[in-house]
C-alpha cells in the first residue's frame, strides 16, 4: 500500500524539504501553496499533484480534501508571519488574517480530512514554533496564533485516539520566512530545512505517541 500525504506551504522551506524526503520514500504527494510557479516546479520534480491556492479559502480547502480520498498524513505547514512588531502597534486586521491562516485554516483542513485519516489510522502534523511558548518581543502576533494551534492540537490528540497528532516545533531554519523576520544574514546561520525535514520524516516513520515534538 502506497502512503499519501497532503502538505500545505510546500513550495519552499520545510514543506518542500519534507515533500522531497517523503517522495524519496515512495509516498504519493498532494502539494499546495499560494505561489503557483515554484509549487508546480516542485510537483514536476517530485511527480506530485500541485493544487495552488490559499488555505484560508474554504473552497480551496474543499478541493484539497476532494483530492485525497485516501490520506495517511496531513501536514499543516502553511503559515503567515504578519510582521515583527510590538503588540501595542499590531494592526488588528493583520492579526485577524494571521488567525485565519495559522489557526482556522489548519483546523478546518483537519475537519475536512478526518474521516479518511481515521479510516487509515493516519497522522496529523501541525507545524508550530518556539514563539508559541516564549515571550519574544515583537513576536506576539505570530506566537499567539501558534499557541492557539498547539492547544487545538493538544485537544485533538485527546479526542482522536486512532489518529496520531503531533504539534512540531522545527526550531530556527534558514527559510525565507525567517529571513523576512531577522534578515538574510542571520537566517543563513540557522538550520538547513532538509536536515529538519529528515528528522520530521523519521518521526512520521516511527509514529510515537501524540504530543509536542521539538525537532532540533
From TrEMBL:
Coiled-coil stretches are none
User: Which CDD domains does this chain map to?
Assistant: SDR_c (cd05233)
Q: Which GO terms describe its molecular function?
A: oxidoreductase activity
Alphabetized UniProt keyword annotations: Oxidoreductase
The domain of life for this entry's organism is: Bacteria
Q: What Gene3D superfamilies does UniProt report for this protein, alphabetically?
A: NAD(P)-binding Rossmann-like Domain (3.40.50.720)
Checking InterPro entries in the record gives: NAD(P)-bd_dom_sf, Sc_DH/Rdtase_CS, SDR_fam
Pfam families per record: adh_short
Q: Which GO terms of the cellular component aspect does the record hold?
A: membrane
Question: What family does this belong to?
Answer: Belongs to the short-chain dehydrogenases/reductases (SDR) family.
Q: What is this protein called?
A: NAD(P)-dependent dehydrogenase (Short-subunit alcohol dehydrogenase family)
Source organism = Nonomuraea soli
Lineage of producing organism: Bacteria, Bacillati, Actinomycetota, Actinomycetes, Streptosporangiales
